[in-house]
Amino acid sequence: MRKDLAQSIAALHPKFLRFPGGCVTNVGNYAPFPDRRRIYRWKETVGPVEQRPTNFNFWGYNQSYGIGYFEYFQFAEDVGAEALPVVSVGVNGCNENRPLAEDQLAPWVQDTLDLIEFANGSVKTQWGAVRAAMGHPKPFGLEYIGLGNEEIYPEFYRNYPHFARAIEAAYPNIKIVTNSGQTSAGAIFDRGWEFAREQGADLVDEHYYNSPEWFLTNNHRYDGYDRTGPKVFLGEYASRGNTFYNALAEASFLTGIERNSDVVDLASYAPLLANVDYVDWTPDLIWFDNDQVYGSTSYYVQKLFADNVGDAVLPSGYSGGSVPGPPDIAGGVGLATWNTQAAYDDVKVTAADGSVLLADDFSAGASAWTPQTGAWSVQDGAYVQTSGATDARTTAGSADWSNYTLEATARKTGGAEGFLVMFGVQDTGNHYWWNLGGWGNTTSAIEKAAGGGKATIATSSHTIETGRTYHLKITVSGRKITTYLDGVKVNDFVDGAVEPLYQVVTRDKRTGDVVLKVVNARATAARATVALDGVRVHRTGTVTSYTAKSLTDTNSLTEPRKAVPVTYPQPGLGTRFEYDFPAYSVTFIRLPG
What we know:
Elements (H helix, E strand, L loop, with lengths): L2 H8 L5 E4 L35 E2 L5 E2 L5 H10 L3 E6 L18 H15 L5 H8 L10 E4 L6 H17 L4 E5 L7 H13 L3 E8 L1 H5 L14 E9 L4 H16 L4 E6 L3 E3 L10 E3 L4 E3 L1 H11 L4 E3 L17 E6 L2 E12 L4 E5 L9 E2 L4 E4 L2 E4 L6 E5 L7 E12 L3 E9 L2 E8 H4 L1 E8 L2 E8 L8 E9 L2 E6 L2 E7 L7 E6 L6 E7 L5 E6 L9 E6 L19 E5 L5 E6 L3 E7 L2
Parallel strand pairs: 1-4, 4-5, 5-6, 6-7, 7-8, 8-9, 10-11
Antiparallel strand pairs: 2-3, 11-12, 13-29, 14-20, 14-22, 15-16, 15-19, 15-21, 17-20, 18-19, 21-26, 22-23, 23-24, 24-25, 26-27, 27-28, 29-30, 30-35, 31-34, 32-33, 32-35
Helix pairs in contact: 3-4, 3-5, 8-9
């Protein structure tokens, strides 16, 4: 491995290493080599490097297997991390479904058992001997294994038990990780968790990439999770972007993760690495080119939390003056398309008291609607958009409507994507819409436009079929948004307020140090009185402060340390003190015990 990249990872003091990573795990065909678009198989990645076959993976670049399972295990050992390999269970994820038949699973189940033997078996076993011959006779001590990645297809529920039961029979001490799909909520997410409980899985791997606003308003996500069921493995998460604002939002969320560390066992930001000259995806944690490396602003947030984990969470709370919450979501409604033609019908908007604000079956035309872009007309009793325009929209209703339910039927007649159903419409640059079949008909999301900018606040994996009629329903109650597709709940999200301060307190049992971790995500400094009851600490401590000149600041190859934390000694602390937490800041206060 390249030394500077390895050192950047090691500096995070990772507790575990998940590999081979994401859609690399379970996308491709099941043909053997020399087919180069085949699915990842761990046995191809061990043995002499020069004899390992190459592969053309899901992300579109050549994978040499120069780093294979043996090297992953070695690297995990080198940095003091648990290895967490993830294997295919005969189902293609990541929106590519080419599953194996149930009677074809046996070799893949055996591959999984052999992997555990490769990691943990004695030198007298077949695969333990392979490990020893590669230079590591001592077992690696594998404790976890993941079955599948972002699974969304029914064949996963059919195949998973074959793998889980075989592992439980042969290696009962191995912790098994299942998963809940690609998003933070929705029918697939709920089914994944229900299945995990049915199967007695040890952990559920949650993946979600949402807007900074989502992370700022979901600090309490895990407060209400079941403490008796499977634990959470937050295997992939990040806010969409690499600015200081993204890092700030992620820091706010991590305080909630730490407060709920009895149910969230593991968490890992993703993706980990990105080449600046070949970018598939942002955000990313560590960026590099052929001879340089730098950490994103999110990297420094991750490092702050990694350097100050502690052993126990101390009970803590924040009480401050009342902060007025944002007003209820209010505004009219709209219909729209993006590079797509569609027909809408039976639009109905019902207020919370049952009164009908709008009902239109378009039998008498579309006089209630104001087209803004696109080609809108009434045809065969439906309101249709027939152009290939991007952002073709038409609106109706009043800017003061709030607390209502919007229903409509929709049918895609052609084009690249699906439907855009608008609500909370104030004007062109301030509105919400439910984007069904967006991004080339690969996913769906609730998006919020404010001041001309747009952010994703909730997602799902739904796509839209041409020619099929869908029933769409959106309920807006205060600031809570609930969506239904054909009667099935998809999203249930509160577009809430930014809290005055986000906080968590941990303690290092060995040293007695207490660490306060506080995030101020507001535009003004917050003066707070800190009172530590029942602990003894020194009056002089250490403060690490992470701020930036602008919320849009990013690190780069030319300015790798444009936004980094600073640490300094701070007198006048102790068990009770006042502190000004700067606007838009992450502050760690370490108090020696």
